[in-house]
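Minutes, project check-in
Item: structure for the 247-residue chain
Input as provided by the requester:
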Amino acid sequence: MRWILACLTLATSLASAQEFEVVSIKPNHSGDNSSHSSSDQGRLAATNNSLRALIQMAYGLPEYQVDGPEWLRTERFDLAAKFPEELPKDRDKYRAGLQAMLQKMLQERFHLVIHRERRTMAVYGLIVDKKGIKFQEVPDTGSHSNSNNNHYEGTGVSMATFATVLARRMDLPVIDMTGLKGAYKMTLDWVPEPRKSADGAAPDSDAPAGPNLREALQDQLGLKLENRKAPVEVLVVDHIEKVPTEN
């Protein structure tokens, strides 16, 4: 929770002080469903991104936490932007700075208006297994984490932050219900769920062996995901234009 509040505070301050130095956004009518985006310390490039995807990028939210008109999925754009200065290399500060500039661009160029509300929906509750946790509490001197597709390492991480990490890899929101209030050090390794063959009849025989994410979570950390119902904050799009103002 402390990490989330810190990022929100940083994003708010950046939003009022920082915007793209140069930004070009043009409709993409290619009909292609593929999209791409990349950024470094100085530039952002997004090709054939839906307007909904740009909103999700700007607010750092998964699809299920954005409610807006259906056409947000079909209106696609190419975006190229230059930052006024290099963004920090620190991952959290970089994300906050980029999101602040994207939010300002959407508000100015698409006249985006939003509000937030809480809705009760299906979630995964992150709980402690009956045998207890298998990771250490550490002094709260700051949060550091690193992850890729199959590996996660965190130091000084709260359970709320870890639940957010898990949610990026699940089909439903993940809500911290552990009751653990400290900062923790943890490592987690898993393998992707095996893919079915093209006809859907059998798993991919080349899939690596090992625990999937839910199994690894229980075996390595002593945590579990359970199906629950809980209130989740949703970003609601009240108004947005299909055509942006001119570059």
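Outcome recorded: Confidence is low (pLDDT under 50) at residues 1-17.
No further action items on this chain.
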